[in-house]
Amino acid sequence: MHPKWFFLIGAGVLLPTAAFAQEADSTALTVQRIFGTREFSPGRVGEVRWLDDGDSYTTVERSVSVKGGRDIVRYETATGARSLLVPAERLCPAGDSTALNPENYEWSPDRKLLLLYTNSKRVWRVRSRGDYWVLRLADWTLWKVGGDAKPSTLMFAKFSPAGDKLGYVCGGNLYVQNIQTREITALTGDGSQTSINGTFDWVYEEEFGIRDGFRWSPDGQHIAYWHLDATGVRDFYLINNTDSLYPFITPIPYPKVGETLSACRIGVVSVAGGQTLWMNVPGDPRDNYIPRMDWAGNSNEIAFQYLNRRQNRNRLMIGDRRTGEVRAILTDSDSAWVEVVDSMKWVNGGRAFLWLSERDGWNHLFLHDRSGAMIANLTPGPFDVLSVDRVDARGQWVYLSASPENPTRRSLYRVSLKGGGAVERCTPPDQNGWHTYDIAPNGAWAFHTFSAFGTPPSVELVRLPDHAVVRTVVSGKAARRSVDRLKRGASSFFRVDIGGGVLLDGWKMLPPDFDSTRTYPLIVYVYGEPAAQTVLDRWGGDTYLWHLLLTQRGYIVVSVDNRGTPAPRGRAWRKCIYRQIGILASEDQAAAVRAMRRWPFVDSTRIGVWGWSGGGSMTLNGLFRYPELYQTGIAVAFVSDQRLYDAIYQERYMGLLPDNERGYRDGSPITHAGGLRGNLLLVHGTGDDNVHYQSAERLINALVKEKKQFSMMSYPNRTHGISEGENTTIHLYTLFSRYFDEHLPPGAR
Questions:
Q1: What is the per-residue pLDDT for 24?
Q2: Sign of CA pseudo-dihedral 699, 701, 707, 710
Q3: E strand intervals along 440-525
Q4: Which one of 12, 25, 228, 646 is separated from 184 by 20 to 30 angstroms, measured CA to CA?
């Protein structure tokens, strides 16, 4: 249900694919062409690191001298002058002729050392466990961090502020290694499956998006870290029936709705070792969360966000690392839920901080002094700030992303830290679509990535604030040429009136040979939950291409964002869904379908719907609750009963179970399984650690009880993205395509 799994479906540039073999017809799409080649991959910039406050940067490039190797290259930002800093041949460990393949890297503060991350393994979602190596540029000495630690067991290694030490996590414990002597000091010793230091359990990572669980103090003398006690968190067991003669079980500590949570606390320990001082946080640590923490602009205080279990109150607290005493300096509360603030930044030498809040009905950027008192609303007006992208401390500017005119787009703005000034648009006003920026520390330069609906991304280096293009970094021309050659009908964004003054944003894609005097089947692509939007004016990757394939077969494809999706349309828009997940959203989607059925070119007897994760749940609610509207649906990796999903996500949007049992029941598709009249395909990975296969099995039982016929496909040991294993993605989308062809016949009538 987390956004990253929603967007994974469309992230075509990251899929492992075979070399492209030219199709006989370059204008027509096939599943193999989309998912089995890299023809439509626009390219990407490799691991850019700004240097010298932004006057130069480094990146990783393919080596011309070492087969399979990669060089670290430096560029002058203004001129583009290129110099080879670290050739691939210098990345060969002693006695090994094979160069390390850096998956990530970090420079020491003085740029004399390079920290390399390689040989990664997946932990839950992300490959966050691997090997780290230090390269000293003066004499090309290369050594492995962690001493005799087993391969691929270190996590989150990073330099101290002075660059003389490295901190890292291994086996649930925190360590510091002296770079000069290579001596290792264990800072904790109680790490286990249930005692977790410096990283997180499954649900914290999934729903709060945090993995790296420790922070160096600015003076490098202490480390603040999270500790989670997962004792009492019940395991969910994933059963693997295929990889050995007898099945084996993988336990996943997973707190479902209403169940016991990990106890979370914050401690500070000296880098020399010794006892941890714990912050004296009030309340039951199993009924509160600490989703964000860092040093509070100095080396004596820690700032952390303290969220109650209902997640409708977020207190910003300051803890003293010398005494452990804490005090709350700011409280955000809401009758629905509050968001965790990712954009809190200390400014003005630590005398003030930035804070995003919906307290006045819009997501605005506020400036507060160190006591928590508000100094100014920096972004007044009826629009939402989407993110803070960079603080230019020297120029006293904050760069932020927003879209005041159109909730399907995204652009860059800036506002003065001094307050009282207008919010200035930096993205040129004639450029629509989706714009993201990696801004240099000095605020003078940025890597600007642009894409639009049906247009693959390109990357330029631009100067700020005038947005002058310095040079193109990734043109995306080859991918654009391939897309432009395809047979494409008209596509457009629209708003559909569902009554009561509510207008929903949507997009539609028409067949290439569209004839407005005939009628076509309509396929609705849905998500609909608070985690993500579908109606965005940006490149949709493989999902867009598959939808285009459907239009080439004679379907109209549409998507609509109901109320409750995280569109920048104000707090009321987003939070009216509270305590009625699956209820209000499916009503909005049904109302939109009723309106679109009145389009003269839509065949009301051929309407289908499909979605993944939350979109799979929405598909089921549509088919079960509004069977008169939808004839066919494909539900992928869905939650059939909200009580089966994780506590952090579901309780955030539905409240606690004892307070909203009816909402949980009425919003769950399984409750309405008897309403099915059309064609239904259920698809689920049996190794899904996010939305468990249990969800599919319980729905299957309910449908059998109701004597409802349906189709299903389970993918053994695949996780929530259903991508593991050779040809899985091709098989999956071939299945989707054939199911729609068979049960929702394509073409004009």
A1: 61
A2: positive
A3: 445-452, 455-463, 468-474, 491-497, 503-509, 520-525
A4: 228
Handedness of CA 679, 685, 688, 690 (dihedral sign): negative
3-state percent breakdown (helix, strand, coil) of the chain, nearest 5: 20, 35, 45
Alpha helices (runs of H) in 522-602, residue ranges in sequence order: 541-553, 571-575, 584-597
* Consecutive H or E run containing 559: strand 556-561
Q: Rounded to an integer, what distance in angstroms lies between the CA atom of residue 152 and that of residue 122?
A: 10
The residue whose two tokens read 């100095």 is 298
Residue with tokens 């009249």: 677
For residue 155, the model assigns a pLDDT of 98
E runs forming strands in 110-206: 113-123, 126-136, 141-144, 154-159, 165-170, 173-178, 184-186, 195-197
Q: Which of 110, 157, 99 is nearest to 129 (CA)?
A: 157
Side-chain-side CA neighbours of 357 within 13 Å: the count stands at: 22
Q: How many residues does this entry show for the chain?
A: 749
Question: How far apart, in whole angstroms, are the C-alpha atoms of residue 438 and residue 448?
Answer: 7
Q: CA dist 273 to 185, 367, 617, Å?
A: 7, 37, 49
Strands 222-229 and 214-216: antiparallel
Tokens 């979370």 identify what position?
Answer: 264
Residues 437 and 459: their CA atoms lie apart, in Å, by 9
Q: In the chain, what are the domain boundaries? A: 3-41+480-743, 208-340
Q: Which tokens is 436 given? A: 């993201």
Asked if 171 and 181 count as a contact pair (C-beta separation under 8 A), the reply is no
Q: How far apart are CA 733 and CA 741, in angstroms?
A: 12
pLDDT at 626: 98
Nearest to 606 by CA among 713, 519, 502: 519
Q: Comparing C-alpha atoms, which of 581, 560, 670, 547 is closest to residue 620?
A: 670
User: Hey, is 299 helix, strand or coil?
Assistant: coil
Contact 121, 152 (CB under 8 A): yes
CA dihedral 662, 667, 668, 670 (to 10 degrees): 90
Span 677-718, pLDDT tens digits: 999 999 999 999 999 999 999 999 999 999 999 999 999 999
What is the rounded CA–CA span in Å between residue 178 and residue 164? 6
Going by C-beta distance under 8 Å and a sequence separation of 6 or more, which residues neighbour residue 108? 114, 115, 159, 163
Alpha carbon 500 to chain centroid, angstroms? 33
Q: Can the peptide bond before residue 465 be classed as cis, meaning omega within 30 degrees of 0?
A: yes
| pLDDT, tens only, 347-397 | 999 999 999 999 999 999 999 999 999 999 999 999 999 999 999 999 999
Type of residue numbered 61: E
3-state secondary structure 296-344: CCCCCEEEEEEEECCCCEEEEEEEECCCCCEEEEEEEECCCCCCCCCCC
Strand pairing of 424-425 and 434-439? Answer: unpaired
Q: What is the pLDDT of residue 113?
A: 97
**236 and 184 in contact (C-beta within 8 Å)?**
no
3-41+480-743: what fold?
Answer: Rossmann fold (3.40.50)
By DSSP bridging, strand 468-474 and strand 491-497 are unpaired
Amino acid at 1: M
As a whole number of angstroms, the distance between CA 406 and CA 394 comes to 32
Helix (H, G, I), strand (E, B) or coil at 78: coil
CA 520: distance to chain centroid? 35
- Residue 654: φ, ψ to 5°: -115, -10
Tokens for 435, please give them: 């714009």
Asked whether the CA dihedral 629, 631, 634, 637 is positive or negative, the reply is positive
CA separation (Å) from 413 to 22, 284, 365, 429, 737? 42, 41, 12, 11, 41
In whole angstroms, give the CA distance from residue 671 to residue 673: 6
Question: What is the spatial distance between Cα 403 and Cα 525, in angstroms, rounded to a whole number?
Answer: 23
| Structure-block tokens of residue 575 | 């939070």
Tokens of 162: 């002075």
Q: Tell me the C-alpha to C-alpha distance, in Å, between residue 682 and each of 547, 634, 687, 705.
A: 19, 6, 15, 16
Q: How is residue 45 written in tokens?
A: 């910039």
For the chain, helix (H) and strand (E) counts, in that order, are 12, 43
